[in-house]
Specification:
CATH superfamily of the largest domain: P-loop containing nucleotide triphosphate hydrolases
CATH class of the largest domain: Alpha Beta
Radius of gyration: 21 Å
Oligomer: single chain
Shape: globular
Order of helices and strands: EEEHEEHEEHHEHEHEEEHHEE
Bound molecules: adenosine-5'-diphosphate, magnesium ion
Helix content: 25-40%
Mean pLDDT: 88
Number of domains: 2
CATH architecture of the largest domain: 3-Layer(aba) Sandwich
CATH topology of the largest domain: Rossmann fold
Largest sheet: 6 strands, mixed
């Protein structure tokens, strides 16, 4: 069994503190879910675990089986068994999906060992069939011209083949239609075993209809403020997050209206004070 441990993690981006002391422990064999409104730091946590250079860890620890991950770069973290399915997967023009995945697999082998080509092609075909991906997708450039849903499936394809110890799935359900949601959900679910754990970041209950999760955490304002079982998912789906904010005494920062501007013959909108000296994104209020 492997354990991914996060202790009192504080992270800043461009001088602004986003994560304000996260504690989390995931063992292989477990599926944990993080839910939370936009902008609370979920993707920041995902990127920090994986080692994105933009996220500055100011305090705390992340370790895998007792080894400090903060001291090793992203490629080594991947080789140790971490995987991130990104919220916004990037395009890599000129590199086919198949070559991309084969290279990542190759990088995990000791020097001098090679991936048997025939076995790799069979594995790739099987995994892309299970994800009901179009047969040409593995042979096209990574994510180039892929729809939102195809990109998300492609992340899961990589995960199925690389077989990490821990996968962080950052909103793999966003942009998926109902059929794709079921396919992705079932594929993730089928990976559950004693050598694999996952941290699933999502907004919605629907993906979790297909995945048996062990633990649900709610993140608000850079902190995990509540943890529980599956019952939390339905409660959030029904009531949103306000009741949890009330429970933990979290108050939304007030936005001051500092004036009104005309936006046509029959509408005005408020000019908001964002507190940083600039006028904020005006919302009709
Ligand atoms: N690379 C970045 N540069 C600047 N600000 C960032 C960056 N990444 C995240 N942030 C800021 O950190 C906050 C949390 O963002 P994020 O982790 O993406 O939230 P979530 O995934 O919960 O929606 C937001 O205010 C966002 O603008
Ligand atoms: Mg996010």
């Amino acid at each position: 069994m492997s354990i991914l441990k996060i202790k009192n993690l504080r992270v800043s981006v461009e001088g602004k503190e986003i994560l304000k002391g996260i504690d989390l422990e995931i063992k292989t064999g477990e599926f944990h879910v993080i839910m939370g409104p936009n902008g609370t730091g979920k993707s920041t946590l995902a990127s920090t675990i994986m080692g994105h250079f933009k996220y500055e860890v100011t305090d705390g620890e992340i370790d895998l089986d007792g080894e400090n991950l903060l001291e090793i770069p992203v490629d080594k973290r991947s080789r140790k068994g971490l995987f991130l399915a990104m919220q916004y997967p990037s395009e890599i023009s000129g590199v086919t999906n198949a070559d991309f995945i084969k290279t990542a697999l190759q990088a995990r082998l000791p020097e001098g060992e090679h991936i048997p080509l025939f076995k790799f092609i069979k594995t790739l075909d099987k995994a892309s069939n299970e994800l009901k991906m179009h047969s040409d997708l593995p042979h096209r450039y990574v994510n180039v011209g892929f729809s939102g849903g195809e990109r998300k499936r492609n992340e899961i394809l990589q995960m199925k083949i690389l077989k990490p110890k821990f996968a962080i799935l950052d909103e793999i359900d966003s942009g998926l239609d109902v059929d794709a949601l079921r396919i992705v959900g079932e594929n993730v679910s089928s990976m559950k075993n004693s050598d694999f754990g996952a941290l699933i970041i999502t907004h919605y209950e629907r993906l979790l209809d297909y995945i048996d999760v062990d633990c649900v955490h709610v993140m608000l304002d850079g902190r995990i403020v509540k943890s529980g079982g599956k019952e939390l998912i339905a409660q959030i789906d029904e009531k949103g997050y306000d009741w949890i904010k009330d429970e933990v005494g979290l108050v939304d920062e007030p936005i001051n209206v500092i004036g009104k501007v005309s936006v046509g013959t029959c509408a005005v909108k408020n000019v908001l004070d964002t507190g940083n000296g600039t006028n904020g994104n005006n919302k009709n209020r």
